[in-house]
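User: Study the shape:
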Amino acid sequence: MVAGCEGRWVSPSDSKARAERRRVIPVGCAVADSTATPSGGGRARRLEPWRRGLEYGLAIYGAGFALGLVRAVLVAPSIGERRAQLLEAPVVVLIGFILAGRVRDRLRACPPGALILAGSVGIAVLLALEVATGVLLRGSSVRDALVNPDPLAGSVYYAAVLLLLVLPSLRGRSRTVPKRPD
């Protein structure tokens, strides 16, 4: 098994594999070619960034929802709503940084645009859930669910959303640091 690649070994005794030597047929975005997989392989490859983006958005929303409850119940009464929101934003971005690394690891063999797509889907899911929560739980309008009355906290929130959008792509860049000879 090749490190960092999901898949199965193709036996060298297979007629096609004998000619190509031993190789791995990966699962998901890493599918080598359309002839090596059943007819559904290309579809799974195309849907993988969408699925990872959905997971990314749901995980960020869940973390933000839990932190929002803690902020509203425990932190905001003692230090104020604005300060509590400003303290919450970096924690959500840190969680997003960790989750973006997981997205990158799962989409490592995908084309570069897959990370951008996963981040975009994740943020679309996040904003849709934010609106749904605002409308269903707080009884606010869609506009009120998206607009924070505090200009500073609202600006920080949308800066964090933009950062969460690009984090999978930023984490996707491989940076290899050469080792220094001792």
